[in-house]
Amino acid sequence: MSLCEHVLSLFRGAVGTVRPAPMLRRAVKLQGDGCPQLLVKGRTFPVKRDLYLVGFGKAVLGMAAAAEEILGDHLVRGIISVPLGIQESLQRAGMQEMLLKPHSKIQVIEGAKNNLPDQEALKGAVAIQELVEGLTADDLLLVLISGGGSALLPAPIPPILLEEKEKLTKMLAARGAAIQELNIVRKTLSLLKGGGLARLAYPAQVVSLILSDVIGDPLDIIASGPTAASSHSAQDCLQILTKYNLLHHLPKSVEMVLSSSSTEPAAPEDYSNVCNIIIGSNTLALDEAKRQAEGLGYTTLILSTAICGEVGRVAMLYCQLIWLVCLSFAGLGEGPPGEEARGNLLQLAAELEIPGLNIAEFLQTLRGLRPERPVCILAGGETTVQLQGTGKGGRNQELALRVGLGLHRAQATKDSSPPGRCDIVFLSGGTDGQDGPTEAAGAFCSPELVAEALQEGLDVEAFLSNNDSYTFFSRFQGGRHLLVTGLTGTNVMDIQAVLIRAAERS
Prior knowledge:
Elements: H1 3-17, H2 20-27, E1 28-31, E2 37-40, E3 43-46, E4 51-56, H3 60-71, E5 75-83, H4 86-92, E6 106-111, H5 119-133, E7 140-146, H6 149-152, H7 162-174, H8 179-188, H9 196-201, E8 205-211, H10 234-243, H11 252-260, E9 274-280, H12 282-295, E10 299-310, H13 311-329, H14 336-352, H15 359-367, E11 375-384, H16 395-412, E12 422-430, E13 442-445, H17 447-455, H18 460-465, H19 469-474, E14 482-483, E15 494-502
Parallel strand pairs: 4-5, 4-7, 5-6, 7-8, 8-9, 10-11
Antiparallel strand pairs: 1-2, 2-3, 11-15, 12-13, 12-15, 13-14
Helix pairs in contact: 1-12, 2-3, 7-8, 8-10, 13-14, 13-16, 16-17
């Protein structure tokens, strides 16, 4: 198998292990007939009367299918809000296990085209709100939450209109706001986020099963925390809007809501009726990819599960890591070139401040490298892109192209080029199967692809300046370097994989 085949296999294996149905079955059981109990990761919840289900997110359809199977006749009714087109996509892909059975008690509402709140998503949010408001102390509400839940549960505080909230979200994203910042703003302006759903469900017992797509798995940030007490206030929202120079571009309705909201975090409320449980995350996916890579003979390291930062800076980090591996394969890791590269790497790592970045372990791994054994570097997280152009693409495609260009430049610089050569492939992909408004989940790239593009007269810098990475990759044999998976039915942020092999000497 080639490096490209290996890297695709690792990505698919990582995504496969965080498929929602198997994860839910591992976490949830129902036992007893006369006095049934719901068991969730060792915790017990009595089913006193009726059991209801709501959910929202990219992975919720598969979670709901497994939940209904487990709950059987105890489930009275359910409503889930899922991405537009996901049922048809999973049907086409033959993923029947992630679809609800005919005559299901769970109503499915599709919406949030391109992961943005819309009227269909609002319809789903209203239906969910009406269901939970009618629950009693004897009812049990199972809440299924995954990434994408924020866009699929829009319920703006009146008089804010959905279109106004959507426009504000778009402006923040275009200016490079991180997912955490987007969610703080969303929940400040929402009826259901920031613990709102749990408050409406009181006094019913609420059990939330969460598939995390946020670095560090913060309960109040994932899907904007509909069942978790918020640790943020209107003041935090105002600071974010100030940071991105949007205070003077707000609609009157948003100004009205923010001016009437408390500038301090809400006092801890009684959430004794709520239990939030993380059942899956990026870490699980990376652990599986590592297991498979080692089985293929790679020296493997998980760099971080929290890669974040501006895509150009993160690309520089990967280029420096790869270059150090190539120097080590060439026997130059401990000489002046290696010392200079290590210094540059450490400086950039300090500037990026990526949580849990295993640079020390990476440098230790370098000392034991042998040219006959290839290297695999794995990481997860979510980068940000500052939109400057009108092109088509997403953060993963842009990261892959920037890494490919950076490596090509390094190889073209005589002074820094080590003797011999390394075969390199870099992949970045969204585990949900989406990367911006394209059918691709991401892309994989190599320095050779960039060299080929330059020989054909393509201006790689111009594609990047226009945020047009999708068009770039589409130019090559029907987009053979695009990572196209279709909607996967899960979502645990992005995965990056680097494979490096010392080229055989002729």
